[in-house]
Amino acid sequence: MSYVDVTLVANAGVMVRYDGTDILIDGIHDEGGHPFSRVSPMDLHLMKTGTPPFNRIDYLFFSHEHPDHFTPSLVNEYLKNRPVKFIVVPRSSNGSKATDGLLAEIRERDIHYLISGLEPGEFDSLDLTKDLRLTIIGTRHMGPQYHDIRNDCFLLEMNGIKILFTGDADHVAEYYEKPLQGVELEAVFVNPLFYHNREGRRIITEIFKPRNVIVYHMPEENNDPMQLRLTVERAREKYVKCGLQTYVLQEERQQLRFWPNNL
């Protein structure tokens, strides 16, 4: 029976492994100025040299352009050293020269790519392999200060196992109702603020309706100015009452395994 492994790399960066295929989501970045974990220099080196556990990355997806999810110069450097089959590049909101350079490298190497940034509520699907389907769901980034930033959610369907990665998507029900109609989610990955927010909780319980909720994008243990770790622990009590199991990804290399219809 097929299963899916999801391993935390850093912050909202995760490696998804299914049936010999590796997908890295929001997993190449090293910029600071925020309380969230950065991809370690060692992991970046392992990626660039193709060393386990990063010896084979088939697909690269980036939800949006913020530096705790995506460093275009590092992605550029990675592509000069390692091949990929397909990459989703976030649309730049202010004409980033680094992103322009990355796109030039992608085109030079004839890599299949998509510039993301769908309008909120829009969605598009494509088959990556015969049993691996990607649906991109457009949303806005959470927070009024980021209203102009588009954040793409990634729904992966892997031989019946459906997992949604939301990045920093805002908790607006209209973004998800049509794209997820009739979709039975094995798991949804959300950040702490989405998980804690009352409207976010309604979306999780009434629209996502997953078998499992996974909280990622957690702050470092000794650098948590918004006390998000405590916030998540308190919010978990409300989800227990809803009958939803919550897991928290907050340690490097922490891994979850998903089987069809159970964890």
Question: Could you characterize the architecture of this molecule?
Answer:
23% of the residues lie in helices and 29% in strands. The chain is built from six helices and 14 strands. The strands form two sheets. Strands 6-5-4-3-2-1-14 form a seven-stranded mixed β-sheet, covered by helices on one side. A seven-stranded mixed β-sheet has the order 7-8-9-10-11-12-13. Helix 1 packs parallel to helix 2 (72-81). It is globular, with a radius of gyration of 17 Å.
Summarize the entry for a quick read.
The protein is of the alpha/beta class and 263 residues long. 23% of the residues lie in helices and 29% in strands.
Strand order of the largest sheet: 6-5-4-3-2-1-14
Which spans of ≥5 residues are poorly predicted at pLDDT below 50? Answer: none
Structural Rg: 17 Å
- What is the beta-strand fraction? 25-35%
The helix content, as a percent range, equals 10-25%
Order of helices and strands: EEEHEHEHEEEEEEHHEHEE
Distance between the termini: 13 Å
Mean pLDDT value: 93
Tell me about the largest β-sheet.
Answer: 7 strands, mixed
What spatial form do the alpha-carbon principal axes imply?
Answer: globular
Give the helix tally. 6
- Please report the total strand number as a whole number: 14
* Helical/strand content category: alpha/beta
